[in-house]
């Protein structure tokens, strides 16, 4: 996937900003507060329906305005020489999103979209940013979101099972709060079990498939950590009982608490290192490198399954990784042929060490200038 035009209107400090990136490395430079990260947020917003710095209503819309707009045009299909050799044609796509913070409208390839998920399913972007270490050291919610994003893009029936589970969970929670009868609870538990078992099987298999991708990257970038293993934790004692039974067994406790205490919405996964006693022993930098290996490992798996790389967004790489690690990561990215967007107050030293020549956009006074 290669973005050929990115435009944002009324996004943070930008009134109307547009860039036409190149297929390889794109470096966005500028002083503090110039708006570099905002350009990555625009891309992320189209691909996830929210920014990595919060929801649209958390300050994404330019002060004094009522809505922001993002437009993205991109090409799909094998890139460069590969495309030529196979005679494959590139598909060109375009999407638009207008968001007020509470309401949104979207267009995809000239048609209105009914669900935000339809826009998110079209454009695949993986993002590494200063908060990404939360994927390893933060709350379980980050790790569930990571798995679900990947599955959403590579497994066609995942979304239906996930929605079935989420809808039934909501209904069960509402019933628990108003102390509904066991017949009603049972009906929704049946629905939760049907959707939740599929979600769990797919998440577990997906994590298993990611393992070799993440391990290979991490062994190259942080050999001192040793080998890794990724372990899925389903959110109930799956080794002992089915989800249906777990829900039944927790019913009394859940009625008291007023919410559902077991199930895939409580799932998590963990990474273990053969060279460390536990993830608590990771340095902050090692947690970041592990998170980056997980994110780019996911991108590599996506490429193996879907035949093309997601767009890669790396916010402020130079302040996140030391020079040697910057170079190792960038070397991989170039080898993969992925389109990448990097931000920085200046070119990352690791990029200079490799002699790479990215397309540079310098942002000043609310306008990016191609250099
Ligand atoms: N809702 C808003 N309305 C107007 N301006 C905003 C709004 N939200 C943020 N800004 C401004 O937009 C800019 C956002 O900058 P952004 O975080 O993208 O900059 P950056 O170039 O990545 O900066 P840094 O190098 O400091 O991380 C800042 O100048 C900020 O003050």
TrEMBL record:
Does the keyword section mention DNA repair? Answer: yes
- Sites binding ATP sit at 30-37
Boundaries of every RecF/RecN/SMC N-terminal domain copy? 4-337
Query: What Pfam families does this protein map onto?
Result: SMC_N
**Transmembrane region positions?**
none
**Principal localisation:** cytoplasm
Q: Where in the cell is it found?
A: Cytoplasm
DNA repair keyword on record = yes
InterPro entries in alphabetical order: DNA-binding_RecF, DNA-binding_RecF_CS, P-loop_NTPase, RecF/RecN/SMC_N, RecF_2
What keywords are assigned to this protein? ATP-binding, Cytoplasm, DNA damage, DNA repair, DNA replication, DNA-binding, Nucleotide-binding, SOS response
Q: Which HAMAP family match?
A: RecF
Family assignment from sequence similarity: Belongs to the RecF family.
Matching entries from NCBIfam families are given as: recf (TIGR00611)
UniProt function note: The RecF protein is involved in DNA metabolism; it is required for DNA replication and normal SOS inducibility. RecF binds preferentially to single-stranded, linear DNA. It also seems to bind ATP.
Protein name according to UniProt: DNA replication and repair protein RecF
The organism of origin for this protein: Novilysobacter selenitireducens
Lineage of source species: Bacteria, Pseudomonadati, Pseudomonadota, Gammaproteobacteria, Lysobacterales
Per the record, the gene is recF
């Amino acid at each position: 996937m290669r973005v050929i035009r990115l435009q944002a209107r009324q996004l943070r400090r930008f009134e109307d900003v547009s860039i036409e990136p190149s297929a390889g490395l794109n470096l966005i430079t500028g002083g503090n507060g110039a708006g570099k990260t905002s350009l990555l947020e625009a891309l992320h917003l189209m691909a996830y329906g929210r920014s990595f710095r919060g929801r649209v209503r958390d300050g994404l819309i330019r002060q004094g305005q009522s809505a922001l707009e993002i437009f993205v045009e991109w090409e799909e299909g094998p890139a460069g020489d590969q495309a030529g050799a196979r005679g494959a044609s590139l598909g060109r796509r375009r999407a638009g999103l207008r968001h007020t913070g509470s309401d949104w409208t979207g267009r995809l390839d000239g048609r209105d979209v009914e669900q935000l998920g339809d826009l998110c399913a079209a454009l695949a972007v993986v993002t590494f940013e200063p908060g990404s270490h939360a994927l390893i050291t933060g709350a379980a919610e980050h790790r569930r979101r990571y798995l679900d994003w990947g599955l959403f893009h590579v497994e066609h029936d995942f979304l239906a099972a996930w929605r079935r589970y989420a809808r039934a969970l909501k209904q069960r929670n509402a019933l628990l709060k108003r102390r509904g009868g066991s017949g009603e609870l049972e009906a929704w538990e049946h629905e939760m079990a049907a959707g939740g078992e599929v979600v769990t099987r797919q998440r577990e298999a997906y994590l298993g498939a990611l393992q070799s991708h993440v391990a290979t990257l991490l062994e190259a970038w942080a050999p001192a950590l040793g080998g890794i293993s990724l372990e899925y934790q389903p959110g109930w004692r799956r080794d002992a009982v089915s989800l249906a039974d777990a829900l039944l067994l927790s019913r009394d406790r859940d009625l008291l608490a007023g919410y559902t205490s077991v199930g895939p919405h409580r799932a998590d996964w963990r990474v273990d290192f053969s060279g460390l006693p536990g993830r608590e022993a990771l340095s902050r930098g090692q947690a970041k490198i592990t998170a980056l290996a997980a994110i780019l490992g996911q991108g590599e798996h996506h490429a193996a399954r879907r035949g093309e790389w997601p767009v890669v967004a790396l916010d402020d790489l130079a302040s996140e990784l030391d020079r040697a690690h910057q170079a190792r990561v960038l070397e991989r990215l170039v080898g993969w042929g992925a389109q990448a967007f990097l931000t920085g107050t200046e070119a990352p030293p690791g990029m200079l060490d490799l002699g790479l020549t990215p397309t540079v956009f310098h942002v000043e006074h609310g306008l990016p200038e191609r250099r």
